[in-house]
User: Which sequence fits this backbone?
């Protein structure tokens, strides 16, 4: 029986006083996540050898791969642990270097850290503008041709809140022999993802946002078909296919056939158990329940913003958005600072304001934010 939303909310101490609405940047620490971090820190202080056993290191790495794989419908052999989304994206791009010199299709949803590696490696990047286009999926699909080696998109854009139909884009890519690479940093943990159903070949994301984990852990999914032809890149002892500690010096041991080959050494050790606790919390609630609750809050928030005359960038159609709300505000700095002073946390961009409700938020959080918006509208900010 999944944990209900009220019990989920009770896991987050910050919500006792604040309306935290910016999980797309850094999610607050749940009690269970903080507990795992503190357990490691205490052991490091009083029994350092205990955090360096094989189980404390490699066992926790394996458990975290398994937990993330369960979340996205993958096999743990297809998961590599990295330090952030950018690292995962760079590895993914290098993996595809052996696929020839064709073009790569991106659009204005694609986060820069997933675009820059293609450009840095001299790829022909085919940019598709979708701002103001009703059917962005169709626009991306039309840019794909038989010379395309990959389509690289963000599942939900952090700049507009627009959600892509990954299954449709994946189908269009595969029709032309191209692969689908997805940046899921704004969806993994708040929207269900199934890499098999949606035709995702490579996926990159981070622990610290909707997955409720700490900074310092990122994830790379490489589908088994891609792995079967994937090159060896940098080599470290974690990615070797031989018993731990039995590393010959005069010869290169076999490299793992799994995605672990892209892991070099130890990640942030205190982050391992904490990141797993975040994913286990999500699985205990069920991401489908989180998605439904967050969608309700997004609708409530967007309706309130429209009533107050704000210009919303995020699509109004629920099928075309996730849990990221982007809107324009002439006095955005005033709004964000006043929200902050009234115990409401939202995001400030160079052009837009962002509100990111997670499943642990409730209607009162949204209403507290909208009260601040009303104060701005009436010129009562101070």
Assistant:
């Amino acid at each position: 029986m999944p944990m209900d939303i009220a019990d989920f909310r009770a896991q987050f101490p910050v919500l006792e006083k604040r309306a935290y609405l910016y999980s797309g940047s850094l999610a607050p620490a749940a009690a269970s996540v903080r507990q795992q971090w503190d357990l490691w820190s205490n052991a490091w202080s009083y029994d350092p050898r205990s955090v360096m056993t094989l189980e404390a290191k490699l066992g926790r790495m394996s458990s975290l791969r398994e937990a993330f794989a369960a979340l996205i419908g993958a096999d743990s052999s297809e998961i590599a642990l990295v330090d952030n989304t950018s690292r995962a994206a760079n590895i993914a791009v290098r993996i595809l270097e052996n696929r020839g010199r064709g073009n790569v299709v991106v659009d204005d949803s694609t986060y820069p850290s997933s675009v820059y590696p293609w450009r840095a490696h001299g790829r022909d990047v085919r940019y598709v503008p979708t701002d103001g286009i009703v059917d962005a999926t169709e626009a991306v699909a039309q840019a794909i041709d038989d010379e395309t080696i990959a389509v690289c998109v963000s599942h939900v854009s952090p700049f507009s809140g627009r959600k892509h139909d990954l299954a449709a884009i994946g189908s269009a890519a595969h029709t032309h022999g191209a692969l689908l690479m997805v940046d899921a940093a704004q969806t993994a943990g708040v929207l269900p993802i199934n890499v098999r159903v949606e035709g995702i070949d490579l996926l990159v994301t981070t622990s610290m946002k909707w997955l409720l984990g700490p900074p310092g852990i990122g994830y790379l999914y490489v589908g088994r078909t891609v792995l079967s032809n994937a090159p060896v890149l940098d080599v470290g002892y974690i990615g070797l296919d031989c018993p731990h500690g039995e590393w010959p010096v005069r010869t290169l041991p076999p490299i793992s056939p799994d995605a672990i080959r892209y892991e070099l050494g130890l990640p942030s050790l205190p982050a391992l158990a904490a990141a797993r606790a975040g994913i286990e919390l999500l699985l205990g609630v069920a991401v489908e329940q989180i998605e439904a609750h967050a969608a309700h809050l997004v609708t409530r928030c967007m309706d309130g913003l429209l009533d107050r005359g704000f210009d919303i960038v995020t699509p109004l159609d629920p099928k075309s958005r996730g849990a990221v709300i982007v809107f324009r505000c002439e006095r955005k700095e005033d709004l964000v600072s006043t929200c902050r002073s009234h115990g409401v946390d939202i995001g400030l961009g160079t052009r837009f304001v962002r509100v990111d409700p997670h499943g642990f938020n409730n209607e009162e959080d949204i209403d507290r934010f909208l009260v601040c918006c009303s104060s701005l509208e009436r010129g009562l900010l101070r």
Remarks:
- Residues 287-307 form the longest helix (21 residues).
- The chain has a mean pLDDT of 95.
- The two ends are 47 Å apart (CA to CA).
- The CA atoms of residues 146 and 175 lie 9 Å apart.
